[in-house]
Write a structure and sequence with these properties.
There is one protein chain. Helix 4 (42-63) packs parallel to helix 5, helix 4 (42-63) crosses helix 9 and helix 5 (82-105) runs parallel beside helix 6. The chain is an alpha/beta fold. 45% of the residues lie in helices and 13% in strands. A six-stranded parallel beta sheet has the order 3-4-2-1-5-6, sandwiched between helices. It is globular and about 60 Å long. The relative contact order is 0.19. The structure holds farnesyl diphosphate. Farnesyl diphosphate (FPP) binds next to helix 3, helix 4, strand 2 and helix 5. The site of farnesyl diphosphate has 20 residues, from helix 3, helix 4, strand 2 and helix 5.
Length: 253
């Protein structure tokens, strides 16, 4: 009887609201392959990737997820053909402008991580303005990783700490995980509980290497433009069935 009832319930309804993850990070992969499968240009894949971004964000809002972080452009992505880089930058600007009413409606706070000073001036302007206009929102924090690379992030944190030691403002013994975390782009954010990567590739690709130390990993065999809200709900549901021990034994939990 219970089983029968469960079958009739949607995945979303089966999610335990008291055990929601705080933070989901996503590597949105497979736009190019999706476009190729359809005989289209890569940019067509990115354009349809925006629809999937909307799906992920809507699902996050519906379920009450506090943090969603999307890998939108890596430090390595600068080496793609200039036309593709330009198209991605335009897509970012257009999406931010277009989605502003949605950000306001759902009280979404937009944030970014990465070397955003590398972005073209007009992208930086739109991004800055969106962040400014949504900074008081208290719903989901949508963080866009832009010109982001985890090794670069870790190196720059290390250099800043080393400088403080060199100038006599900090003792080496004072450097602990908390202080180190506070020097990363993700300062003040909880670490991701879930990392999702689409496209069937099972790699981390220089994404939040420090922060995902205890994240549950989900590698989905679908291409990013195929991602729907149901995929996010399914990952959250599966996450709730996994036992997170953080190095302890089952009995100690
Ligand atoms: C990876 O697919 C995807 C990207 C490098 C860009 C992600 C961008 C979007 C989803 C659209 C814009 C985003 C926002 C937030 C407005 P790929 O091109 O590496 O695919 P492939 O591995 O199949 O070639």
């Amino acid at each position: 009887m219970v089983e029968k009832l469960c079958l009739q319930m949607s995945v979303k309804e089966q999610i335990d609201q008291s055990k929601l993850p705080e933070h989901i990070a996503i590597i949105m992969d497979g736009n190019g392959r999706w476009a190729k499968e359809k005989g289209e240009m890569r940019v067509f894949g990115h354009q349809n990737g925006v629809t999937a971004v909307r799906e992920a964000l809507e699902a996050a809002v519906e379920i009450g997820l506090p943090y969603l972080t999307l890998y939108a452009f890596s430090t390595e992505n600068w080496s793609r053909p200039q036309s593709e880089v330009n198209a991605l930058m335009e897509l970012l600007v257009n999406s931010l402008n277009q989605e502003l009413p949605t950000f306001h409606k759902h009280r979404i706070r937009v944030n970014s991580i990465g070397r955003t000073a590398d972005l073209p001036e007009h992208c930086q302007g739109t991004l800055r303005q969106t962040i400014e206009e949504t900074k008081h929102h208290t719903g989901c924090t949508l963080t866009l990783a832009l010109s982001y690379g985890s090794r670069e992030e870790i190196l720059s944190a290390t250099k800043r700490l080393a400088e403080q030691v060199q100038q006599g403002h900090l003792q080496i013994q004072e450097i602990d995980e908390k202080l180190f975390s506070a020097h990363l782009y993700t300062e003040g954010m909880p670490d991701p509980d879930i990392l999702i990567r689409t496209s069937g590739e099972e790699r981390i690709s220089n994404y939040m290497l420090w922060q995902i130390a205890y994240a549950e990993l989900f590698f989905l065999p679908i291409l990013w433009p195929e991602f729907t809200r149901e995929h996010l709900f399914q990952c959250i549901y599966d996450y709730q069935t996994r036992e997170r021990r953080f190095g302890k034994t089952s009995e100690q939990l």
